[in-house]
Amino acid sequence: VKKEPIPLQHGAHRTGKRMDADMAKWRGYGLGQFIHWGLYSILEGKYKGKYYNGAAEWIRSWKEVPNAEYDVLNKQFNPATFNATAWAKMAKQMGVKYLTFTTKHHDGFCLWPSKYTDYTIESSPYKKDIVKEVVDAYTKEGIDVYLYFSIMDWHHPDWRYDLKTKEDSIAFDRFKLFTKNQLTELLQRYPQTKGLWFDGTWDNSWKKSGAFTDSLEQYLKSLVPGLIIGSRLRADEKGNRHVDANGVLMGDYEQGWERKIPKTYADVHGNDWDCVMTIPENGWGYAEKWMGHWKTTNELIEMTAQCVSLGGNFVVNFGPKADGSFRKEEIANAKEIGEWMKINSDAIYNCEYAGWEKQDWGYYTKKRGEDKVYMIVFNVPLSGSLKIKPSANYVVEKATLLEGKQQLSTEKLDYGASFIQLPKGKTFVKPFVIVLDIKPVK
Ligand code: JFZ
Fold first, then answer.
1. Does ligand 1 come within 6 angstroms of the Cβ of 397?
2. What is the pLDDT, as a whole number, of residue 3?
3. From ligand 1's centre to the CA of 199, what distance in Å?
4. Dihedral (CA of 222, 225, 231, 232) sign
5. Could you tell me the distance, in angstroms and rounded to a whole number, from the CA of residue 158 to the centre of ligand 1?
6. Runs of H (alpha helix) within 160-263
7. CB neighbours of 21 closer than 8 A, spacing ≥ 6?
8. Are 161 and 204 within 8 A, CB to CB?
9. How far apart are CA 56 and CA 394, in angstroms?
């Protein structure tokens, strides 16, 4: 029995994907960069010689750190070696198509000179507008910029976790206006902004503000036509987040894939999505010591392939040091990803879910609007034969190695499957791509 939809005033206003040109561009990005930078970068995940076990950008919430001491770190923020152009060039070389940059994280410190609070970059020895430097430099390199903005603000006296009293509601009403003002300010100051990446929206105060979140989203979109906002901003009037009470996504793409990747296409429910990922296990801001496993470049490339093969984008996080330089591990990852992308990005940009049965050697992607499927190979079988099974509506005309354009022989098997034969004696030391020219079956 199909359930009757619950009538909602502040639920999703659209079913299915956004089909305009701005969203089509977003969908084609494939690979993105996230940057977490702020006052937490000064503490480097430690305080008085003790290491914090949580994510470095959350260190203010650690019982060891007195808020009063954290909150004056703005007086020390002075990134001597910060060079936005160098950041953007590194990102360009890495092959990312978009950046998400922390304008304000949970600690409330603004990297732009907001006129709605004193707790901004203007109060630091650095003084200059970092958001502007970043937006301009990345835009110049042809990389689209999205602004990360935390709703939760530990520094603002009117922030509330919940609305339990009349006073809470009055304070939070002021906070909502403050939030709207800051967002308006960001979009007016940085008109190149392609979208907003919201965070810190999980508390009851926000969940009880469904009508406001709805009007805020519509208002922000009226300021910048085509603006892209994921599913982490809104709540419906019943307090549901990401998807409304009827299970429909609120927002332009699913923002719930954080440090995890869907297993199958069915898991993404027909929505656009991106996965944001840390290189260490967890922690987005700079930490002196990276705890746990650090992802290798091949792992990051594999995650990129996996995401694109399931119709999503993959976003790698970087946490620069307080002085504005990147740690050597991140520089190496960026460089090596870029070297791989230089050869293989055809299989990443403007690609989509191919709809072919997944095989053990790796991931398929399909070029949007073209009869081209890519095999991104991570596991080479000892036999040297890669099995493929095209969907029933396609046949493969030709298989070629993307690098060097060598044509590969194929062998037909039962049940519509084939083998693609790798060149005898050739050893592969990096993930590689095979291009399949395909033809629709009449
Ligand atoms: C949030 C932040 O708290 C964190 O510091 C970082 O900025 C990250 C990108 O976003 O952390 C989250 C948010 C959502 C989930 C997990 C961590 N979630 O939905 O599982």
1. no
2. 80
3. 7
4. negative
5. 22
6. 166-189, 204-207, 210-223
7. 226
8. yes
9. 49
Query: From residue 279, how far is each of 51, 287, 297, 329 by CA, in Å?
Result: 19, 12, 9, 9
Higher pLDDT, 80 or 209: 209
Q: Which atom of ligand 1 is nearest to the CA of 256?
A: 19
- For residue range 26-78, what is the model confidence (pLDDT) as tens digits? 999 999 999 999 999 999 999 999 999 999 999 999 999 999 999 999 999 99
Pull the structure tokens for residue 299: 């792992």
Sign of CA dihedral 209, 214, 220, 226: positive
Q: Looking at ligand 1, which atom is closest to the CA of residue 200?
A: 3
Distances (CA, A) of 61 to 69, 70, 108, 271: 12, 10, 13, 34
Q: What ipTM was reported for this prediction?
A: 0.95
Listed in sequence order, the residues at least 6 apart from 200 whose beta carbon sits closer than 8 Å to its beta carbon are: 106, 150, 151, 152, 153
- Integer Cα distance of 79 and 141 in angstroms: 22
Classify each residue of 283-301 as buried b or exposed e, where b means 16 or more C-beta atoms within 10 Å of its C-beta: bbbbbeebbeeebebeebb
Cβ(378) – ligand 1 distance below 6 Å:
no
Task: Report d(CA 56, CA 147) in Å as an integer.
Answer: 20
Quick one: pLDDT band at residue 256, thresholds 50, 70, 90?
A: confident
Confidence of residue 442 (pLDDT cuts 50, 70, 90): confident
Instruction: Report CA torsion sign: 120, 125, 127, 131.
Output: negative
Domains of the chain with bracketed CATH: 21-349 (3.20.20.80), 354-440 (2.60.40.1180)
Describe the strand order of the beta sheet including 312-318 as a list of residue ranges.
228-229, 195-199, 144-150, 98-104, 31-35, 312-318, 273-277
